[in-house]
Write a structure and sequence with these properties.
- The structure is a single chain.
- The chain folds into two domains: about 120 residues, Orthogonal Bundle (Peroxidase, domain 1); about 140 residues, Peroxidase, domain 2 (Orthogonal Bundle), CATH 1.10.420.
- By secondary structure, it is mainly α.
- It has 13 helices and two strands.
- It binds protoporphyrin IX containing FE.
């Protein structure tokens, strides 16, 4: 007996429809505006000078805003892309996740937003303001300037459960994997981690490493022995976990290669920093940045290049997002 086959036209038409729809979306995406330098043009010709002046006044009022905003930009870009999701307030928003509890400088971004809403209403995204402010703060600490591509839209979703950032005890393998997931390579990892040339960390984050590393009862053996009592004095075992210590001992407010040099001498504060020197793949990059190995890398220009890349992670355009009226809430 011959088999009876029921031909269902949907079996052919559905896949065809899916292919056509995907092609149409891909083509439409080609025409969506991509972030680019000079994006706002006459729609907000003074966007850069407004952000710069807000950044300047806040830097001189409190220089700790500089590391605060640089880190905030990183935390924004690594979670749902550079879409200002880290700025949204709310019960289960990204801001409530543990790594974000110590972020600082939200008021700076909001102040710039308020001024921009007066100068060019509903035009400049909070994600763009954060990217510009991070660059401007870096410049004020002695770091490089780079042109920031603009045109990111603000996201409408911010969930604490999405926050899965590199941690202070991550190995190089794990850090590499997390950066690769954002299309950043091993050099980007080393160069961007060297953003720790400015700023501080809370004692609670790394104290174990200086007293009882991995429950050994002793400090991490990769720490320079002369550095151990120095940090132990700043972060006593039962002292305030929120007390803050420079990530780049001796040069915390200055954007320079001193952080990398500290790694070379076992003076990294975080384990995730020190392993960049002990690991055979990342050490040569540190050496090149320090001018100890050919071909040399210039820290300033490499930092600018990697920041540019980071600032374009999974950016939203078209119908993906919006221009918020205030940075702490969706419209
Ligand atoms: C590579 C993986 C990274 C890890 C594991 C890491 C981890 C940390 C930790 C644990 C702190 C201290 C937080 C606190 O106690 O408040 C910190 C601070 C900081 N991080 Fe990172 N970070 C990484 C990458 C980056 C990147 C890519 C940047 C920016 C380009 C950055 C910029 C900063 C800054 C500026 C601070 C100081 C913040 C302040 O003083 O308020 N970090 N980081």
């Amino acid at each position: 007996m011959g088999r009876v086959t029921n031909f269902n036209p949907l079996c052919v038409l559905l896949p065809l429809f899916i292919v056509l729809a995907a092609t149409a979306t891909a083509q439409a995406n080609l025409f969506l505006p991509r972030p680019r330098i000079g994006y706002y043009g006459s729609a907000c010709w003074n966007v850069e000078s407004i952000v710069r002046s807000v950044v300047r006044s806040n830097y001189f009022a409190n220089p700790a805003n500089a590391p605060g905003i640089l880190r905030m930009h990183f935390h924004d870009c690594f979670v749902r892309g550079c879409d200002g999701s880290v700025l949204l307030d709310g019960p289960n928003s990204e801001r409530t996740a543990i790594p974000n509890l110590s972020l600082r400088g939200f008021n700076v971004i909001e102040e710039a937003k308020t001024q921009l809403e007066i100068a060019c209403p509903r035009t400049v995204s909070c994600a763009d303001i954060l990217a510009l402010a991070a660059r401007d703060f870096v410049v004020l600490t002695g770091g490089p300037w780079w042109a920031v591509p603009l045109g990111r839209l603000d996201g409408r979703v911010s969930l604490a459960s999405d926050v899965d950032l590199p941690g202070p005890t991550d190995s190089v393998a794990v850090q590499k994997q997390r950066f690769a997931a954002k299309n950043l390579n091993t050099q980007d990892l080393v160069v961007l981690a060297a953003g720790h040339t400015i700023g501080t960390a809370g004692c609670g984050v790394f104290r174990n490493r200086f007293f009882n590393y991995n429950n050994t009862g002793s400090p991490d053996p990769t720490i320079n022995p002369s550095f151990v009592p120095q940090i132990q004095a700043q972060c006593p075992l039962n002292g305030n976990a929120a007390a803050r210590v420079a990530l780049d001992t001796g040069s915390e407010g200055q954007f320079d290669t001193s952080y990398l040099n500290n790694l070379r001498f076992g003076r990294g504060v975080l384990e995730s920093d020190q392993v960049l020197w002990t690991n055979p793949e990342t050490r040569p990059i540190v050496e090149r940045l320090l001018g100890l190995r050919f071909p040399f890398l210039l820290f300033g220009s490499e930092f600018a290049r990697s920041m540019y890349k980071m600032s374009l992670i999974e950016v939203k355009t078209g119908l993906d997002g919006e221009i918020r009226r205030v940075c702490s809430a969706v419209n």
